Amino acid sequence: MTLSLISELNSELKEVYRFRYVVYSFVQTNLKLRYRRSVLGFLWTVLAPMLHYVIIGVVFSVLMGNRRPDYFAYYFSGALFFSLISGVLGKAPAVFISNEHFIKKIYLPKLLFVLNSVSIEFVNFLLSASALIILGILSSQFKISIYIFYTIIPIFLVMAALLGICCVIGILTVYFRDIVHIVPVVVQALFFTTPIVYDEGMIPEKYFWLIKFNPLSYYLQLFRDPLLYGKLPSASILGLCSLLSLSLLLVGLGLVKHFDNKI
Predict the structure, then answer these.
(1) CA atoms within 13 Å, Cβ hemisphere of 100
(2) Long-range contacts made by residues 56-65, C-beta under 8 angstroms, separation at least 24?
(3) What one-character-per-residue DSSP string does the chain give?
(4) Separation CA 226–CA 168 (nearest Å)
(5) How far is CA 135 from CA 57, 76, 129, 142, 248, in A?
(6) What integer pLDDT is reported at residue 1 of this predicted model?
């Protein structure tokens, strides 16, 4: 049974690769439509988050006083990383139902629609990351070291996890449209239970379990440690996130394959 599942997943991935040009076309078209008739065009992808981070960072830096001198970079890194997650999860419920006209008329692997949604958010994240790098360098709050290249690993891991989660949410929404209203509430709850605006030392000990059992906290730590502290995170956290990402990805791919004809 395991070998059969692996064979089916392998076949699905080969089909997706055969239609890879659809993903390229979708991302390119989406970006062009988003910024058409705009004077600054793609530059807004950098300016918009930069202005947002500066405003929020200044406000909270004043409120924090001297409690966290590197608050700018701390908030920037957390907000940027979460923007990728919230962007994908926000579009996940509509990943199949918004493409109903394509699914009914032409053959395309169902996983392709998930990849389209995840890919556009990934490209937006990469463009917005330039704002984070510029602000981090200007404020001298980033530890410039060889470990900064390590941030590729947590980005890859969270993308794999989001791909799996997006598959699950998309399929659930086909059967239960209430998911469309539930997901935004869950995303908001995740934002406030993840140390983005605050750090662990700012919350009462009795509520610390909210962070401890929030997997996003560990992904965020993998991303922040090389940027803020110029060090590698612990191997145990890396192993935990890798296992979780692989599990979510396999579950998502398996469900898409199982419900392929039912969707």
Answers:
(1) 6
(2) 60/197
(3) -HHHHHHHHHHHHHHHHHTHHHHHHHHHHHHHHHTTT-SSTTHHHHHHHHHHHHHHHHHHHHHHTTS-TTHHHHHHHHHHHHHHHHHHHHHGGGTTGGGHHHHHHS---HHHHHHHHHHHHHHHHHHHHHHHHHHHHHTT-S--SGGGGGGHHHHHHHHHHHHHHHHHHHHHHHH-TTHHHHHHHHHHHHHHTSSSSS-GGGS-GGGTHHHHT-HHHHHHHHHHIIIIISSPPPHHHHHHHHHHHHHHHHHHHHHHHHTTTT-
(4) 31
(5) 11, 8, 10, 9, 33
(6) 45
Tokens matching residue 181: 């209203």
Q: Compute the distance between CA of residue 32 and CA of residue 30 in angstroms, rounded to an integer.
A: 5
Residue 212 burial by Cβ neighbours in a 10 Å radius (0-12, 13-18, 19+): exposed
Average pLDDT over residues 105-123: 82
CA 88 to chain CA centroid, Å, is 6
pLDDT digits 0-9 by tens, 41-71 = 556 666 666 676 677 767 766 666 566 667 7
Q: Does the pLDDT value for residue 143 go beyond 60?
A: yes
Residue among 135, 124, 129 nearest 73 (CA): 135
What pTM did the predictor assign? 0.82
One-letter amino acid at 112 equals L
What average pLDDT does the segment 170-193 reach? 91
**For 221-260, how does the pLDDT look when each residue is reduced to its tens digit (9 = 90+)?**
999 888 777 788 888 999 999 999 999 998 998 888 888 7
Instruction: Compute the average pLDDT of residues 87-109.
Output: 84
Q: Six-digit token pair at 182?
A: 């539930």
- Give the C-alpha separation, 201 to 1, whole Å: 48
